[in-house]
Amino acid sequence: MQKIHFAIRTLLHSRGSTLVKILSIGLGLAMSCFLFARVAYDNLIDTCFNDYGRIYQLNMQFKIGGNELAWQEMCVGKLTEGVYSALGEDMVEAAVMTRRFFGNNISRDNEILPGIVMVADSLFFKTFGVEIIDGDHNGLAQKGKMYISDRMARKYFGDESPVGRMLTGWDDIPLQVSGVYRDWGEESTINTDFIVSLSTLLENHWGGLGWKGGDSWFDYILVKEGTDLEVLNRKIMEVIEANVPPTDDFSLKASAIPLRDVYRGQESVRMSTWTLSFLATLILIVTALNYVLLSLSALSRRAKAIGVHKCSGAGRGTIFAMFAIETLIIIAVGLVFAAFCFYVARRFAQESIYDNFAAYISADRLWVVAGVVVLTFGIAALIPSVVFSKIPVSQVFRRFVEKKHRWKHSLLFVEFAGMSLMGGLLAMVIAQYHYIMDLDPGYEPDNVVCITRSNDGKEHREALMKVYASLPYVDQVAIGSMPPGYGYSGEFVRDDHGSPLFSSRYDNWNNKDFAELMGFRLLHGRYPEAIDGSEAVINQEFSRLMGWKDDDAVGRQFRISDQNVTVCGIIKDFITGTLYQEQQPYMAMTEDNGWSQRFFLKLKEPFGQSYASLMADEKELMEGASNFSCVSLGTQYRQTYHSVEVFRTMIMTGAIILLFISMIGLFGYMRDEMHRRSREIAIRKVNGASTAEVIEMICRSVMTVAIPAVIFGSVAAWLIGRYWLEQFSVQAPSITAMYVLSGIITLILIALASTGMTLRTANENPSKSLRSE
After folding, report:
1. Can you tell me the distance from the alpha carbon of 275 to that of 281, in angstroms, rounded to the nearest whole number?
2. What is the pTM of this model?
3. Which is nearest to 412 in space by CA: 686, 768, 705?
4. C-alpha span between 378 and 277 (Å, rounded)
5. Residue 173 in contact with residue 143, Cβ under 8 Å?
6. Please, where are the H alpha helices in 265-365?
7. Residue 160, strand partner residues
8. What is the rounded CA–CA span in Å between residue 145 and residue 215?
């Protein structure tokens, strides 16, 4: 207790220094804990299922014309059945094929029940170990049956049981609720609110079940205990080769991946995990070392007090314990301050960093906080405690002068390098974010909204077109099947012998009005007019893959399925998916086959006012429609790169915190330097040194450390940034200049801060310092 009493008295005696330490420790802990909690969250996705270690997802890869396409999660319709039939006795305990539908697909008496719909076969609940808490267990084996999660059951039915109730799916498919299952939470890649039996989908001719196409299914298997993954994948390939013998033109590969590795194994997630872990570690180390720097900067002032303690009988262990307790108290109070920061910043974080901010710092991740605290304490307490405990008792009788100050330069080097690294990363991310936001996507999403409605036939569509066109805030109206940038279904382009050449993105329009509304750039020819699918417009990438030149592609033919298609026009390449992907080939036809159910409206300026008017008219416009949704394409395009914006915000927050911590460390260093060199400064001033010369002398030692540290940090930022930029198909051209500019700004900030901290002492009367000697 006496050690605690002495530690508290010392901290209260140096209230200013204590407050600064608490602020720096608290901010560093807050940011480190949040980043590590986010990393933990990403690496615990899909661990919510029973026996998740035995659940695997099947992935598939096409090889077309000797070219291997990327591995994909969507599999052909026969894969699950083939694997389960062949391996069910030895390795696979259960298997399920699924498909999800987003939007408003379920309704009750024309009342939309928003939620994600999954279509699955009869072994879904066995595969994932999901508990059915009410109703029949065998509904997924029957047509027209569905299940609802307990969360959605409470939301839409209250305390009543929904079992036996009739709902409607996809406008006109009757569905009876067979049961209620226990929701497994949001920390999963397999989120759904409703589950409809697979036979219902197939009865309505939705979805293909083949070996060479229809890759629209997400397949999962539950393997038996002790199954070897390498052997399992070899057996899966034997199943594939038995059903799809490989040829020079076409072959398939498939493999099983542990469910837990599906999300955390994605390139973007692995990149995020590595980058955030590095940044969190950097902030933790700089925070701890900054505390060490502040503590040791007080060495000359606290040496006599430590000598007094030793004269009173305190040994090295006692002094060590006293300073360790001081550190523990400051970290504890800093932790309270960090919690306060979380509380204050939760709304900002929810809106600008992560939608599910509360989940990342929830109680079940307190072990992350504990780990960060232990590491911080280990670094921050050990070094000062050891140094202070070695101070000899003779310091009571003489003035302590610290001659070895290279350790302070080492600590400053780490802090300055951390500042430069974070500043360089921030500059890089800002440049890349603005570049992709300002990049021409090849079409015009601004002011365009996409309305998805139920399919009520051609006459009803045409009537709605007239209604939309008559609205005063609508400029143009068109019908299409898919908005640009959402990703498209694929179609194999074949040669004259029917062998696949490559897979192209496929779209169909109601007429050329869609292309004109979206602002596609027609380079040659015209838009398709035939409604039988016999002619198509293609993009430049399609022409390149066919070996054609853009200016002579019009009039040429290619083959899809068993139909020859004539090229009637070439459009400029546009972003068919995202900037995380390479440019994809694209073709579009004009077909009146009923699938083009999306209305595209170009609204007049001001867009916000026009959009609000459209939403105000929603009830009248959706009369009789059980399926209605409206999305702004401009907003959706920006939302695609929200993760970049989030990363930018996190880097900015971390950079500000590191700047604050580093400036505190620099202040502690400069204060100690002024105290240590006060007599030298006074003598120089007596001998005629000017204020500017004194400032230059003191700042030179800082800049000697800062310049190599900033260079080191900028190079580290360049290496990390290069790794992070690999996820994009395009990169900002000015990235290297941004690293240099960031380094220069960092050096200017350090120089200005050093000058400001030195100015008072440089202007001080030298007699004051000499008199104290």
Report:
1. 10
2. 0.79
3. 705
4. 19
5. no
6. 267-297, 299-311, 316-352, 357-360
7. none
8. 24
